[in-house]
Automatic annotation (TrEMBL):
Gene3D superfamilies: Transposase IS200-like
PANTHER family with a match to the protein in the record: TRANSPOSASE FOR INSERTION SEQUENCE ELEMENT IS200
Span of domain Transposase IS200-like: 10-74
NCBIfam families membership: transpos_IS200 (NF033573)
Pfam families: Y1_Tnp
Annotated GO MF terms: DNA binding; transposase activity
GO biological process: DNA transposition
Protein name (record): Transposase IS200 family protein
Amino acid sequence: MVDYKKSSHTVYDIKYHIVWVRKYRYPILKNNIAYRLRDLLRQGCESIGIEIVKGNITKDHVHMLISCPTSMVPARE
C-alpha cells in the first residue's frame, strides 16, 4: 500500500533514486567510514525534511531511495 503525502492542494508520492560513486571507484567506504557516512546522511536528510526509504553503502558507492516534498527539486538542493 502506498502512503501518499498531502499538502493543502496536492497529494503526492515522489521518490528519487540517487547514486553517489567514489572517484575512480576507490573502495574506501567501509567499517567506520561507512558508519559515519550513514549517520551524516541520516542527519542531513532529517534536517531538511527528506525521508530515506532505503539505502545501501558499498565499498565504492552509495544508493539511496528518498522521498521528499514537492517543493524540493534534486537539481536545486
